[in-house]
């Protein structure tokens, strides 16, 4: 059996995420992978996730070719599998928002997340408009959309409540 195929699913300056989907969930494999990558180089941050089947490397100097060569030489993965290297813009956007949410939670010790910040921003924006005397009714389609959102939220909350005797 050959090396598991790997691909770069996200890359930006100082940040690299590699996916190894064929080994997703494999505790032994990702434990060894973490150990071997730690031996290879000390990165600012290295996160190996068996749940997502990915490796996140954050460092000022990331050399993808060196990582690929090392991984190949150590029989960890083959980074030449590029069939998944391009992902739709929405996937990249969602990935970036998820990373932002993780960083917000980390910085606030779990007290705040992206949704909470957006909620506060929108509440403050709305209150500011009310205080300025700008009271307008939303268009019918916006009102329906908000009503649907509130209905869905209420049904989710209702489903999470314990049954009353």
Structure description:
This protein has 165 residues and is α+β, with helices and mostly antiparallel strands. It folds into two domains: 7-86; 90-160, no CATH class. The protein is built from five helices and four strands. It has helices at 27-40, 64-73, 89-107, 114-131, 140-160; strands spanning 7-12, 15-19, 45-49, 54-58. It has a four-stranded antiparallel β-sheet with strand order 1-2-4-3, with helices on one face. The chain is elongated. The model has no long low-confidence stretch (mean pLDDT 86).
Name a few traits of the molecule.
2 domains; alpha+beta; 4-stranded antiparallel beta sheet
What level of helicity do the residues show? 40-55%
Tertiary shape: elongated
Sheet bearing the most strands, described? 4 strands, antiparallel
Total number of domains: 2
Q: Give the strand order, joined by hyphens, for the main sheet.
A: 1-2-4-3
DSSP strand count: 4
- In whole angstroms, the N-to-C terminal distance is 57 Å
* Percentage beta strand: 5-15%
The low-confidence parts are none
Give me the secondary-structure category.
Answer: alpha+beta
SSE string: EEHEEHHHH
Rounded to an integer in angstroms, the radius of gyration calculated over CA atoms is 22 Å
Output the number of helix runs: 5
What integer is the average pLDDT?
86
């Amino acid at each position: 059996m050959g090396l598991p195929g790997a691909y770069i699913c996200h890359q930006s300056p100082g940040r690299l995420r590699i996916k190894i989907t064929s080994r997703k969930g494999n505790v032994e494999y990702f434990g060894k992978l973490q150990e071997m990558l730690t031996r290879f180089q000390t990165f600012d941050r290295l996160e190996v996730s068996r749940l997502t089947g990915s490796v996140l490397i954050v460092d000022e100097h990331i050399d993808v070719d060196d990582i690929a060569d090392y991984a190949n030489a150590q029989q960890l993965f083959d980074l030449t599998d590029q069939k998944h290297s391009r992902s739709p813009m929405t996937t990249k956007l969602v990935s970036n928002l998820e990373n932002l949410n993780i960083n917000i939670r980390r910085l606030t010790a779990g007290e705040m997340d992206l949704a909470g910040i957006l909620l506060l921003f929108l509440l403050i924006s709305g209150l500011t408009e009310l205080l300025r005397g700008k009271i307008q009714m939303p268009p019918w389609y916006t009102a329906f959309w908000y009503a649907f959102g509130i209905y869905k939220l209420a049904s989710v909350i209702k489903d999470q409540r314990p049954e009353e005797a």
